[in-house]
Amino acid sequence: MKYCLALLFVLCSCSIAYSQKIAIMDKQLQEPIVIADSLTTEQQQTNNYFAVEVECVDTFYAALKYVKTFLETGHDTTARGLKFTTLSTNITINGVLFFAFGKRYNILAKTNIQGVATAMLLSSKDIRNSRNAQKVEKLMKYMEATRWLLKPTANIHPSFYVEVVDTPVKK
């Protein structure tokens, strides 16, 4: 009985001590992706890093692929926005209508891991969609440089859900 209780205590202690691995990306895409247990104080204060749980990196990459296609094709939705959600990462697409230039998008990726929030602007309404698509593609290539972190593309099965956000327009 003592051994069972001791084993139960050890198992509970291990599960409490387990920490989620996170991939820490440099927002300027200059430094390599680092795998860590948490963000350092310096990384939190400088706000130059974006964190994604390692188990969600493939899904985040698949969502980026969708965002890139979304920007390239000029996909127009009747909804005013879309939201992709994984375990701790959200990508929010908000459409802004520019009458002379068509529809442009503010696309923001946010994550909250271990109580630390990070955010990265993927697309700005002030920049053409084609330029924003190039920016997203650059981020994807940055992630691909760390091949051991990503599964082969054929094995990536996104596990996010899409929430359509529609705000009625006042006339």
Brief summary of the model shown:
The chain has a domain at 55-165.
Could you describe the 3D structure shown?
- By secondary structure, the protein is α+β, with helices and mostly antiparallel strands.
- It has a domain at 55-165.
- Helices cover 32% and strands 31% of the residues.
- The chain has 4 helices and 8 strands.
- The chain has helices at 2-17, 41-46, 57-73, 129-144, and strands at 22-26, 34-36, 49-53, 81-85, 89-98, 102-113, 116-123, 161-165.
- It has a 5-stranded antiparallel beta sheet. A 3-stranded antiparallel beta sheet has the order 2-1-3.
- The N and C termini lie far apart (72 Å).
- Mean pLDDT is 75; it is low at 1-18 and 166-171.
What labels describe this entry?
4 helices, alpha+beta, 171 residues, 3-stranded antiparallel beta sheet, 32% helix
Spatial strand sequence of the major β-sheet: 7-6-5-4-8
Work out the radius of gyration: 19 Å
Strand content: 25-35%
Shape: globular
Based on secondary structure, the structural category is alpha+beta
What is the H-and-E element order? HEEHEHEEEEHE
Rounded mean pLDDT is: 75
Major beta sheet, specifics?
5 strands, antiparallel
What is the number of beta strands? 8
Number of helices: 4
Chain-wise SSE layout:
Layout lengths: L1 H16 L4 E5 L7 E3 L4 H6 L2 E5 L3 H17 L7 E5 L3 E10 L3 E12 L2 E8 L5 H16 L16 E5 L6
Antiparallel strand pairs: 1-2, 1-3, 4-5, 4-8, 5-6, 6-7
